[in-house]
What does this fold into?
Amino acid sequence: GQQLNQSPQSMFIQEGEDVSMNCTSSSIFNTWLWYKQDPGEGPVLLIALYKAGELTSNGRLTAQFGITRKDSFLNISASIPSDVGIYFCAGLPSGTYKYIFGTGTRLKVLA
Amino acid sequence: EAGVAQSPRYKIIEKRQSVAFWCNPISGHATLYWYQQILGQGPKLLIQFQNNGVVDDSQLPKDRFSAERLKGVDSTLKIQPAKLEDSAVYLCATQGRRNTGELFFGEGSRLTVL
It folds into this structure.
């Protein structure tokens, strides 16, 4: 099935650094969801975005719905060790009801 | 509010055996999804229910996979007979607002087929 292009695939960062990741598509999306998945657990919803240009924060996390409606960004400020995990984006293409998932960004934080 | 409940958390079977997974959605959530997540990949949709009706099962391998949603609440996903490539995590997700709202996932059922 179709998947979104999510980058980077993985990243190693130092504790305290900021992190940026994004998802892009050739299609227009109506909704973007960002999830974090820890090993052995299900994805946990972090942020939901519904309008182009929307910028939403959840603690140290900030996500944006791209103006073109074809991309979304997630930023994590001042990373801490518990930020380790896999971050997935999920988008709802315009005119459909089926979410498409990104391939995931694996984040490792070095103390 | 209780989250999405799934069981079993882990299951190991031999190929050609059968297995069933159970999901109890968040109370009041009409839409329920089963996803398959292979290691290192994002979730892939298998089937979507709206109440007790199937909305989309186009990616469900119907020769071996089946799913039902009894009375529009709990759901079961069955694999019979299992193949090695079915080894994955099976995630149940539910949604409150029809089709455009947030998806909430359960912890998943990890299947290993030997």
In short: The two ends of chain A are 37 Å apart (CA to CA). The CA atoms of residues 59 and 76 of chain A lie 9 Å apart.
